[in-house]
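Input.
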Amino acid sequence: QTTLGGSVTVDYPVGRRTLTDGSKVASWNVYAGAGVGGAIGSAENTYNMYGENIGGYGVLGTEASVSKNFVAFANLKFPFGENSVDNYSPVGTIGGGFKF
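Output.
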């Protein structure tokens, strides 16, 4: 089973830091948005490991810069439809990723 998804968010910088070249970048953001995620090639109403289905979700979260291109994040996803956890239950996610 292959899972594919993504979200579109609006970031609001809460903290900033100055780089050696004098430019300022966000060191801590909060964000909100919406996304979709689901299992490809699976039966309808099949959910991936995060409880997401193709119906989409709203997301609220925060991310902090760990290094120049690596961030740590935590968020809550609010499904627009039933999910595998419980009817419309939010699902929390924490992790890290590269940001370019």
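Residues 51 and 84 are 5 Å apart (CA to CA).
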